[in-house]
Specification:
The complex is a heterodimer of chains A (about 110) and B (about 110). By secondary structure, chain A is mainly β. Chain A has strands at about 5, 10-15, 20-25, 30-40, 45-50, 55-60, 60-65, 70-75, 85-95, 100, 105-110. Chain A is globular and about 40 Å long. The chains are: A mainly beta (about 110), B mainly beta (about 110).
């Protein structure tokens, strides 16, 4: 069935360093790949998304890359700050418009 | 713009009891989702509504879970009877339409079944 794998499950970086989170999807019909940030006690919030006709997208310190051939997409956060600490989820929307979420990455930025 | 509203914020019940959650989506959003998020996992879709019709309930345990969306606006999710494994955060989300676009999530209801 449709599946999204996400790695790593936890990630600790020093403040100012970069963080990379990777996801792999199974449904070749997937055409939309959002990333959500979830802070404690809150619902997930969209931070960036990419569509299948684009290979890379940037928004200030955040970027997402997509490799459709390999069915991989990644989140890159540069110059990390303590407020970046949260759980990050990737997702893929299938050909049947179903959102499939990854298992999450707990990012800890150490001051 | 008001966000997705959910209530209650927390609920503690004993197994075999029933519980209901309420969601008010962003005004004008046609699509409404209920997700179950077990601690340490990603959200799992339970049911998706387009206006007041169900478009996907394939992962809803229909022997104990039910949901409705009256008049295509508010929605309620019910569990009856609850089991220990139902302990989770229940998230409601909405989007303007069905398809590849941003979801707006509420803060969720944290359910503990003892």
């Amino acid at each position: 069935g449709e599946n999204v794998e996400q790695h790593p499950s936890t990630l600790s970086v020093q403040e100012g360093d970069s963080a990379v989170i990777k996801c792999t999807y199974s449904d070749s019909a997937s055409n939309y790949f959002p990333w959500y940030k979830q802070e404690l006690g809150k619902g997930p919030q969209l931070i960036i998304d990419i569509r299948s006709n684009v290979g890379e997208k940037k928004d200030q310190r955040i970027a997402v890359t997509l490799n459709k051939t390999a069915k991989h997409f990644s989140l890159h956060i540069t110059e990390t700050q303590p407020e970046d600490s949260a759980v990050y989820f990737c997702a893929a929307i299938s050909g049947t418009y179903k959102y499939i979420f990854g298992t999450g990455t707990r990012l800890k930025v150490l001051a | 713009e008001a966000g997705v509203a959910q209530s209650p914020r927390y609920k503690i019940i004993e197994k075999r009891q029933s519980v209901a959650f309420w969601c008010n989506p962003i005004s004008g959003h046609a699509t409404l989702y209920w997700y179950q998020q077990i601690l340490g996992q990603g959200p799992k879709l339970l049911i998706q509504f387009q206006n007041n019709g169900v478009v996907d309930d394939s992962q809803l345990p229909k022997d104990r879970f039910s949901a409705e969306r009256l008049k295509g606006v508010d929605s309620t999710l019910k569990i009856q009877p609850a089991k220990l494994e139902d302990s989770a955060v229940y998230l409601c989300a909405s989007s303007p339409n069905r398809g590849p676009e941003k979801l707006f999530f509420g803060s969720g209801t944290q359910l503990s079944v003892l």
